[in-house]
Amino acid sequence: MADEAGGGLEFHPMDQFIVKPLFGGDTIAWYTPTNVTLWMALTVLCVILLLVVGTRGRAIVPSRAQSVAELAYGFIYKMVEDVAGKDGVKYFPYIMTLFMFIVFSNFLGLVPTAFTTTSHIAVTAVLAMGVFLAVTILGFVKNGVGFLSLFWVSAAPLAIRPILAIIEVISYFARPISHSIRLAGNMMAGHAVIKVFAGFAAVLAISPLSILAVTAMYGLEVLVSFIQAYVFTILTCVYLKDALHPHH
Predict the structure, then answer these.
(1) CA distance 118 to 232
(2) 61 conformational bin, left if phi > 0, alpha if psi -120 to 50, beta if neither
(3) What is the pLDDT of residues 98-143, one digit of tens each?
């Protein structure tokens, strides 16, 4: 919103990211239903409607919902197969779930007055940490101690291998941080910019330019919403590949 104060305009683009209880009050405990809870539930509902309800007929001539679901299925399946290899296909359901949850969270956040759950690091950090723990455990289960070869660059000269190993270890443990911040940061920044331009639209003299800017930013944010879900998912496939084939 843009409020006139002291002859000027006051913008609060970050207010849209405030977590609020659904049923009033100021205290938020771990069990308190909030706007985050509501929009995450709506995200899950949308995924179920598309992938379960939308495909229940399994028609030869698919409906629009079935066509979208099949397109998403084929897109992610091909990604997993190309990046992680045939061995990674068995983990496709987990990766597909990640992609659908993130992409729907991103798109629902573009609905006016909606809450973008993926703009909060608390949400993206849980997703990223889940991926990190899953691929790390899988790496040791599949390869045993041999998984540690991921950090040993055998192609490099022997003298610098220990230094590279330290760098690789640091890089590996930084994965969940970069994985989560990338998604949350991009979603928060895009929505904040849209809110700023929408605030300027309240000024009559520049409202046509602001409306044009908001429209352009909205279109860009639609693209960013999909790209960020894609980036999160393909990085998950890359990490899965490292867990399955640490020697490659």
Answers:
(1) 12
(2) beta
(3) 999 999 999 999 888 889 999 999 999 999 999 999 999 999 999 9
Quote the pTM value. Answer: 0.87
What are 237's two structure tokens?
């496939």
| Higher pLDDT pick, 128 / 58 | 128
**Cα dist from 195 to 34, 186, 191, 209, whole Å:** 22, 14, 6, 14
Q: Would you say 131 and 236 are in contact if contact means Cβ atoms under 8 Å apart?
A: yes
Determine phi and psi for 3, rounding to 5 degrees: -110, 135
- Taking Cα atoms as reference points, which of 228, 196, 192 lies closest to residue 213? 196
User: If DSSP codes are grouped into helix, strand and coil, which group holds residue 2?
Assistant: strand
The alpha carbon torsion through 12, 14, 17, 18 (nearest 10 deg) reads -60
Amino acid letter, residue 194:
I
Beta bridge partners of 5: 8
